[in-house]
Write a structure and sequence with these properties.
The protein is α+β, with helices and mostly antiparallel strands. It folds into 4 domains: 2-64 and 583-622, no CATH class; 70-282 and 539-575, no CATH class; 325-408, no CATH class; 432-512, no CATH class. 44% of the residues lie in helices and 20% in strands. Strands 20-28-23-24-25 form a 5-stranded antiparallel beta sheet, with no helix packed on it. Strands 3-4-5-6 form a 4-stranded antiparallel beta sheet, with helices on one face. The protein has a 4-stranded antiparallel beta sheet with strand order 11-17-13-14, with no helix packed on it. Strand 24 (472-475) and strand 25 form a beta hairpin. The chain is elongated and about 165 Å long.
Length: 623
């Protein structure tokens, strides 16, 4: 009778536990990361010589869980958040450079269109004023673009700082749950809810940065970051912090609180995407934009100086541009000053460099790849280091181990400005003009002439070319020089060509273009600079350079969007696969609820029958 009663009681308790487990599943059907649980019933064996068992009991509550699928969710979460962060930032650069009527490309085209208008009407003040307006708008667009890139750089800083705070909070929570799991584990039975909470925290952690995990024998999980550095060990968590870049204090990186720098080792998640954007899009775009600003400034200024304005003076510089920057490392012990300037715009690249001193020799390397870059020169003001279009001067006081970040282009767009405000100061005319004497007896003709050295002190002096015979000429009282039809004649910073057959005494004059108010030769040459290939060793024009920049950023942004969308599908599929195994099916749980309820009622009926039999036995004995 006692066994009969105990069997019924065991069933009652077991099915009560099964009902509690089912109701727990139903209550958490919408809980993020919850894994369905199942009460496992086992028969209680008979004791002694009894043939029948002693009922049932709940041996454990199983967590319906697939470690591989959960790992896929965490990995895909890290990859998706990285691409989402990267794309959201890159798309802003793409819109800045190529989107709408106020993009840099549109402004550049409007600038050269206005220059063409000046060439059509070189004496008109209205067209000159319109050109200055477009030139001013172009410089403003460059500075605004640089300002926007700086804002995106600050956005990266904010994302890194916020992610570091979130990572610290999540790591601490994981460590606490590790401690609870170890303390609450009974044999091999661990709280399923604690395991779910830890997995959910690990998924959130992967949303900020890629991590790896290792399960310990006691149930705790160790978490590693930055290719193997410990973040969580058992019930203790390391703390991350932000750090200033050694060259640019305004840039934020990541370190452990013990000082270990890990910025370059971080990957995945939102923080990884932001840092990848800075390295792969932001810095290259800023450098390419800066080189374009240098190209516009250097080439247009040089050509403008070769012309003559409406007041009869040589043209000055049209634009100013930000100078290259040389940033000393915060770890330098020496005090040497390093200055950088643009030496040759045709060979200038978009790269940044690190200049190092080993105590005896200076060396240069690409800041991104670390590849050594050969230099010429000695680094003195008279003989600076020269490399890829820049000149580097190094002062005294350097110590072994000192290093400097050389950024030739990063500050150029920010410092771009228009230097001409008077429309009469636009040098649309050529500075010199060559003429043929009407008294010449031969049929030789001279070209109008061109300036090849605007800085020559005698450029505007009047010079006569007088032929002593058909094969020789005097120039400026010097000579004679042999004459070949069509050969260039260079003198005082200008060049002319005489073609035909001259006679002795024939004279050609080169003088200041004083009557050049309607001359548009320099304006045409300025306009031609848009398509003249003077960058990348003569393979790219200003338009090509900007087109390459836009295409590069656009391609990276498009690929990021495609990869993000593909990764989102993978993430959704992995989450669905996890839910298929671990998710709560309310229909199934409702059926289980009815099944366990009926079993519970049946167990209660067994107890009721046992009670009736016991009462009958009591009554029989009492009589």
């Amino acid at each position: 009778m006692t066994d009969f009663l105990n069997t019924g009681v065991s069933g009652l308790i077991a099915f009560q536990r099964a009902l509690a487990t089912t109701s727990h599943n139903i209550a958490n059907a919408n809980t993020v990361g919850f894994s369905r649980q199942q009460a496992l019933l086992t028969a209680r064996p008979a004791r002694g010589t009894a043939l029948s068992g002693l009922g049932t009991e709940v041996s454990s509550v199983r967590r319906i869980y697939d470690q591989y699928l959960v790992g896929q969710v965490q990995t895909n979460t890290s990859a998706f958040n990285r691409l989402q962060s990267f794309h959201s930032l890159a798309a802003q650069v793409d819109n800045l450079l190529a989107g709408g009527g106020t993009s840099v490309g549109t402004m550049l085209q409007d600038f050269f269109n206005a220059l063409d208008t000046v060439a059509d009407d070189p004496a008109g003040l209205i067209t000159r004023e319109a050109f200055l307006g477009q030139a001013r708008a172009l410089t403003q667009r460059f500075t605004q673009a640089e300002s926007r890139l700086n804002a995106l750089d600050r956005d990266v800083n904010n994302r890194v700082s916020n992610s570091v705070s979130e990572i610290n909070a999540l790591a601490e929570s994981i460590a606490q749950i590790n401690g609870q799991i170890v303390a609450s584990s009974s044999g091999s039975q661990v709280s399923s809810d604690l395991l779910d909470q830890r997995d959910n925290l690990l998924t959130q952690l992967n949303g900020h940065v890629a991590v790896t995990t290792v399960q310990q024998d006691d149930g705790a999980t160790n978490v590693f970051i930055a290719n193997g550095l410990i973040l969580v060990r058992g019930s203790s968590a390391e703390s991350l912090g932000t750090t200033q870049n050694e060259y640019e204090p305004t840039r934020v990186g990541v370190r452990f609180q013990n000082g270990t720098e890990i910025t370059s080792r971080i990957s995945g998640g939102e923080i990884g995407g932001a840092l990848d954007f800075r390295r792969e899009v932001l810095d290259p775009a800023r450098n390419a934009l800066g080189r374009l600003a240098h190209g516009i400034t250097e080439t247009l200024n040089a050509q403008h100086r070769e012309g003559l304005d409406l007041t009869g003076l040589q043209g000055g510089d049209l634009f100013a541009v930000g100078s290259p920057v040389s940033l000393a490392s915060a770890f330098n012990s020496g005090a040497a000053a390093v200055t950088t300037s643009i030496d040759d715009i045709t060979t200038l690249t978009t790269d940044d460099y690190v200049l190092r001193y080993d105590g005896a020799v200076w060396s240069l390397e690409n800041s991104e790849t670390g590849v050594a870059v050969p230099m010429t020169g000695t680094g003195t003001p008279a003989d600076p280091f020269r490399v890829n279009g820049i000149a580097i001067e190094v002062g005294a006081g350097a110590a072994a181990g000192d290093r400097y970040l050389i950024r030739p282009n990063s500050n150029a767009a920010a410092g771009m400005d228009l230097l001409v405000s008077d429309p009469a100061k636009i040098a649309a005319a050529a500075a010199i003009i060559a003429t043929t004497s009407t008294a010449n007896a031969g049929n030789a003709q001279v070209s109008v002439g061109q300036v090849i050295d605007s800085s020559h002190p005698n450029l505007l002096n009047t010079v006569n070319i007088v032929f002593t015979d058909p094969n020789n000429y005097m120039i400026g009282g010097t000579g004679p020089f042999p004459y070949t039809s069509g050969d260039p004649i260079d003198f005082n910073g200008w060049r002319v060509e005489i073609s035909g057959t001259p006679q002795a005494g024939d004279t050609f004059a080169v003088s200041t273009n004083t009557a050049g108010s309607a001359d548009n030769r320099n304006a045409l040459l300025l306009s031609d600079l848009q398509s003249l290939r003077m960058l990348d060793n003569g393979t790219s024009s200003l338009g090509d350079s900007f087109g390459t920049l836009v295409a590069s950023v656009g391609t990276v942004t498009q690929h990021a969007a495609i990869n993000r969308d593909a990764q989102q599908i993978l993430l959704t599929d992995s989450e669905q696969a996890r839910l298929t195994i671990s998710g709560v099916n309310l229909d199934e749980e409702a059926a289980n609820l009815l099944r366990f309820e009926q079993a519970y009622q049946a167990a209660a009926q067994v107890i009721s029958v046992a009670d009736q039999l016991f009462q009958t036995l009591i009554g029989a004995v009492a009589r």
